[in-house]
Amino acid sequence: MFPREFAWGAGTAAYQIEGGWQADGKGPSIWDTFCHEKARVFGEQNGDEACNSYELWEKDLECIQQLGLTHYRLSLSWARLLPDGTTRHVNQKGVQYYRKVLDDLLACSVSPMVTLYHFDLPQALQDQGGWKSAGMATLFDSYAKFCFQTFGDRVKLWITINEPYVCAKLGHEDGIHAPGLKEPGVAAYLVGHNMLRAHAMAWHSYNSFYRTKQKGAVSLAINSDWLEPSSADGAADIAAAERQLAFTLGWFAWPVFVTGDYPEVMRSSVDAQSEKLGCDGGSRLPSFSEDEPAVLGTADFFALNYYTSRKVTPGGGRGEVLCMTSDRGSRDVLDPSWPICGVSWLAVVPHGLRKLLKYIKDTFNNPAVYITENGFSQVGQLQIEDVQRSEFYRDTILEVAKAIQEDGVDVRGYFAWSLLDNFEWADGFSVRFGLFHVDFTDARRSRTIYQSGREYAKMISKYKCGQSE
């Protein structure tokens, strides 16, 4: 049912689990700053301690082994390694921590997938303009080369940037993620552009200086819902769904996998809206420079984060208001027949993942795909025996099998989100995605496996042995 070398994994991110926000020379990140401001996060919570994985890594490793994972996805804290964001000052305590993590994983026959950037920019670099600054791409490339040089002998799968869409839109247009900027219709496009430039530079650096010896693979993690027209035979709805996909998945996948530039419908829509609004400096959607490393072809695999699906219909713009919504001219809604999982935005649609995988195969020249995030949230009263989430994982993994067997999609791995209950960004600790429950009222941060974790472990054991349904 699954290839013999299929990667069975789970993922985490540094800020969400590590804690130790000031430990051993770590510098502050934008999420440290954001969480310490009033009214930013649910319950004024923060990741100062989180799961305390900085001190309790061995407990995390026990969880990984209990599940029988073949792979573990983690992110490096840029500010823990380089407190001011630059290689002028290397924090050796941070280097030692991550070397131990990687060495322990390999000793247990678990392959690491390492993300260089998962939302937590060093505050020192934000003070210099952050991702809105063109110079951030070069700074990221320097950080990436440091990580390749320092850890590359231990890592075969690299993610440069996680979910640039979320960083750009939620952090710089909606203001609900760090750094909390609300600059609609302008900053998100600039941030996304600089992230693509940064990714491309880092990929070319790896390709030129490290690939021959280290023999790894590099990509960026692109998040996308499956988006389909509200009416399957309505031309306007079909066009609206195509625009919505272009402004989400296509925004980052099209330059990397197809043309080296943004989708034409995105380019024409933003250009026309910019002209209509008389924007200074022309289009708000930047252009790539021929003087910089090409973006096209800078992914050795397609890394997909998928959570839910939406129905799309025309409209949704707010008149002359400058925002991404008015640029794309479409809006998405949840189908009332889809059950909601925990949080309001997350409908349970396992078959949407299969459809999205088929779309990626057909649109992006049949790339190798790793599903780098997929999960199910729990809110309210704690349910260790989480039957619905167990069913979700069973149903989702069967849809992945269908995508491989029936649709011919080259899926190489599946990473559940998340290994642990953790700090869920603006929702704090109110939303739980873990395969293990973490008791945040307990100073020891005790970990308890959910029923869904036990079920996932059984599926891994069965499919690793080549069994099918």
From TrEMBL:
PROSITE patterns: GLYCOSYL_HYDROL_F1_1, GLYCOSYL_HYDROL_F1_2. Transmembrane segments: none annotated. SUPFAM superfamilies: (Trans)glycosidases (SSF51445). GO terms for molecular function: beta-galactosidase activity; glycosylceramidase activity. Keywords: Glycosidase, Hydrolase. Belongs to the glycosyl hydrolase 1 family. This is Glucosidase, beta, acid 3 (gene/pseudogene). The lineage of its organism: Eukaryota, Metazoa, Chordata, Craniata, Vertebrata.
